[in-house]
Design brief:
The complex is a heterodimer of chains A (282) and B (285). Chain A has 282 residues and is of the alpha/beta class. Helices cover 33% and strands 23% of the residues of chain A. In chain A, a hairpin with a 2-residue loop joins strand 9 and strand 10. Chain B folds into 2 domains: 42 residues; 235 residues, MetI-like fold (Orthogonal Bundle). The chains are: A alpha/beta (282), B mainly alpha (285). Chains A and B meet through helix 3, helix 4 and helix 7 of A and helix 7 and helix 8 of B. Bound molecules: adenosine-5'-triphosphate (ATP) and magnesium ion. The site of adenosine-5'-triphosphate has 12 residues of chain A, from strand 2 and helix 2.
């Protein structure tokens, strides 16, 4: 089922780039250095140059936060990793995104397969108008999985991972839309986890939630790092500070600065980053 | 007088004008329905509904015309529902958004406004003559299906468009294909709107006489049709036929038949409204 094994003939050698922005001393659990790499990315919406010459590496089992003022291209960049921009009219991409040594924009890539490896959580909780169970089971069902006890196991597992199991285990048949916003968002995360992705993309996953739900999801992201590589867009700088290992600051389509979150927040090298972090603009 | 008072007066004048306009419409409808009820209600009986046509107005019934209408409804649904919904899905989700689709789109909207008698001529020429189907139920139903296709296509597109893109995104992001997303998410969520559109379109079809007269539906059919290839009549044609008779008895029959037809269309509209509310309640974003 793994799309990477299907296309071994396009196997690529990853070499450390000169303009890699992450320091070399990162301890990576995997023997591979980087899970995900973006190389020389330029993206356009028609004439609008939305991302300019961006290079970035994502170590396995790390959390990377994208920050920056509205419209700077964070979502555009994030959506490159599961090819959600593909169907936007007028969108054009130059450069490579490499996941486990394979360029995901290679023409042999089956997008549906890719998205099983790269899950996504959206800004506004968007559960399907179905039961909680069917929401979480959806990704498996569309892969053709219909074994009841198998699905039940997976759903229970995923709901336990997002710490929702105890709250909903007796109401799995309830419509997911009847849950609170925070619960809905956790269903959406569980739904993404159920297909066992390697990467999880999150676009402002807590911006529509109350502080308590937000902190639960932050804790969750912290725990998920053990098993997944996570990229999160956030407008909440404290949140970036709390949960991420690396932070990337974007401004008008440029990647201004990237580094360890601690360094970015305490000792930014670029003036713009400093201004943004200290709240002088943005 | 200051500005505020002038504006208030304008408000008042407008609401009175609006009220009168509403009343004119309602009053006309009430007068019309009242008149029909007075004329026809007394004539409605089990015998009238199950009676075969007859030269004698007191013995004549609407059974063959009713049976024809039910057949036509059934066949028209069978033909127009799958084609209309498929075309709507294609235009909304699959068709490349280019000049050709623009032209198609405008023409489909235009088709909804073409007089129904033109569809009758088309049906006569193509289905009755070219396909050699004659003045049969099938010819009539295919003609009416053409007539309501644009309505169904437009209703389907509108309902699909109303499904939030966040739901589609969520489905795609989980690795669903376009077809899976349509089948598992978009269609269930828009089925209420689609069904409402289809039923409203059908309630228009069931009231049509002109195109069916053109394709050769008969005013007098001795027996209820038994197969799609049989000759047929429908309620509106029966009504039209009776009204043009000189005898008072047939005029009363026509009024009674109108009541039956009205009940049928109100019933269909009621189902449409019920479906809409039912599905709306189930799905709240
Ligand atoms: N579908 C689209 N079509 C055309 N232009 C787009 C589209 N989506 C985004 N853009 C433009 O691309 C630029 C980057 O947008 P993007 O959504 O990536 O910003 P963002 O950093 O996520 O902003 P926010 O913080 O407000 O979510 C903006 O100028 C935006 O107007
Ligand atoms: Mg965004």
């Amino acid at each position: 089922m793994n799309y990477t094994t299907e296309i071994m003939d396009i196997y690529k050698e990853t070499s450390p780039e000169e303009n890699v922005l992450i320091p070399d001393d990162i301890s990576v659990k995997d023997d591979r250095k980087y899970k995900l790499t973006a190389r020389n990315i330029n993206a356009f919406y028609g004439d609008l140059h939305a991302l300019k010459d961006i290079n970035m590496n994502f170590p396995q089992n790390s959390v990377t936060a994208f920050i920056g003022p509205s419209g700077c291209g964070k979502s555009t960049f994030l959506r490159l990793f599961n090819r959600m921009n593909d169907y936007i009219e007028g969108f054009r991409l130059e450069g490579e995104i490499i996941l486990d040594d394979v360029d995901i924009y290679n023409e042999k890539i089956v997008i549906e397969q890719l998205r099983k490896d790269v899950g996504m959580v959206f800004q506004k909780p968007n559960p399907f108008p179905k039961t909680i169970f069917e929401n979480v089971a959806y990704g498996l069902r569309i892969q053709g999985e219909n074994n009841k006890s198998f699905l039940q196991d997976k759903v229970e597992n995923a709901l336990k991972q997002v710490a929702l199991w105890d709250e909903v285990k007796d109401d799995l048949k309830k419509n997911a839309l009847s849950l609170s916003g925070g619960q809905q968002q956790r269903v959406c995360i569980a739904r993404a986890l159920a297909v066992e992705p390697k990467i999880i993309l999150m676009d402002e996953p807590t911006s529509a939630l109350d502080p308590i739900s937000t902190s639960r999801i932050e804790n969750l992201i912290f725990e998920l790092r053990e098993d997944y590589t996570i990229i999160i867009v956030t407008h909440n700088l404290q949140q970036a500070g709390r949960i991420s290992d690396f932070t990337a600051f974007f401004y008008l389509g440029d990647l201004i600065e990237m580094g360890r979150t601690h360094d970015i927040f305490t000792n930014p090298k670029n003036k713009r980053t400093e201004n943004y972090i200290t709240g002088r603009f943005g | 007088m200051n500005k505020v008072l002038i504006n208030r007066r304008k408000d008042l004048i407008f609401s009175v004008a609006g009220l009168i306009a509403t009343f004119v419409g309602l009053v006309m409808l009430v007068i019309f329905i009242g008149d029909i009820l007075i004329d026809g209600l007394g004539r409605i009986s089990w015998d009238f509904i199950t009676g075969l046509p007859s030269r004698n107005p007191d013995k004549a019934g609407i059974f063959t015309a009713m049976a024809g209408s039910v057949w036509v409804l059934f066949l028209t649904t069978l033909i127009s529902f799958p084609i209309g919904v498929a075309a709507g899905i294609y235009l909304e989700e699959y068709g490349k958004k280019g000049r050709i689709s623009k032209i198609l789109e405008i023409n489909i909207s235009n088709l909804a406004g073409v007089p129904s008698i033109i569809y009758g001529l088309l049906g006569l020429e193509i289905f009755a003559r070219l396909f050699n189907l004659g003045p049969s139920l099938l010819t009539g139903s295919m003609t009416l299906a053409l007539l309501i296709l644009p309505i169904i296509i437009v209703a389907t597109r509108e309902s699909i468009k109303a499904v939030p893109s966040s739901i589609k995104d969520a489905s795609y992001a989980l690795g669903a294909s376009k077809w899976q997303t349509m089948w598992h998410q978009v269609l269930p969520a828009s089925m209420g709107g689609i069904l409402t559109g289809v039923i409203l379109a059908l309630s228009r079809a069931v009231g049509e006489a002109a195109p069916l007269i053109v394709v050769g539906a008969l005013a007098y059919v001795p027996f209820a049709p038994k197969s799609p290839m049989d000759d047929f009549s429908v309620l509106p044609i029966q009504i039209f036929n009776w009204i043009s008779r000189p005898q008072q008895g047939f005029i009363i029959n026509a009024a009674a038949a109108i009541i039956v037809l009205l009940v049928l269309t109100f019933l269909m509209n009621g189902i449409a409204i019920y479906l809409r509310n039912h599905w709306q309640k189930k799905i709240k974003w």
